[in-house]
Specification:
This protein is of the alpha/beta class and about 170 residues long. About 50% of the residues lie in helices and about 25% in strands.
Length: about 170
């Protein structure tokens, strides 16, 4: 069975004009961002197709009520995917990084405060990670895992683990 990561890479490579574009330092950030967006869409679609929870809402770039960047709650925190049913919410962050960069460090820096806000309101948070760039930042991954209800890699088997976690929470 191919991992979803491999499929993302193959889908993306079909759109490239030459290998020179893939390795170009100028386009590396743009390419990485595109892979992240494709990964986010595939995770969202996988959840929609495999959760089988009546009346669940899966939304890309959504918010959890009461979760904000500020104490005044005037800047709601955006999550890559939000799963919700009635008054239960799960924020899911998705990250696919080909090269190491500061994205995972930023997520690690936010992990504790996000987790505490989410726990206080009875919600949950999960992460889907893949790409060598993420796994090269071991300390950041450890921090995120410490402040997560469910952290998985980006493969069909791991996405099934996320689905099981969501079913347990929502049903």
């Amino acid at each position: 069975m191919k991992s979803v990561t491999t499929l993302v890479y193959q889908i993306n490579c079909k759109n490239l004009l030459s290998k020179d574009i893939w390795v170009s330092r100028i386009t590396a950030g743009s390419q990485s961002n595109t892979l992240g967006q494709i990964t986010q869409t595939l995770v969202k679609n996988y959840l929609e197709d495999n959760l089988d929870i009546p009346n669940i809402n899966i939304k890309g770039n959504g918010h959890l009520p009461g979760i904000s960047h500020t104490e005044s709650n005037d800047r709601p925190t955006t999550f890559d995917i939000v799963a919700s049913k009635e008054n239960k919410y799960v924020g899911i962050e998705v990250s696919f990084q080909v090269t190491t960069n500061s994205v995972i460090e930023r997520k690690a820096g936010q992990a504790k405060s996000r987790f505490e806000q989410i726990e206080t309101l009875g919600y949950k948070i999960g992460y889907v990670f893949d790409g060598a760039g993420n796994f090269q930042r071991e300390n950041a991954l450890k921090t995120i895992c410490s402040y997560s209800h469910c952290t998985v890699a980006f493969s069909l088997k791991e996405l099934d683990v996320l689905c099981s976690f969501l079913k347990e929470y929502f049903l």
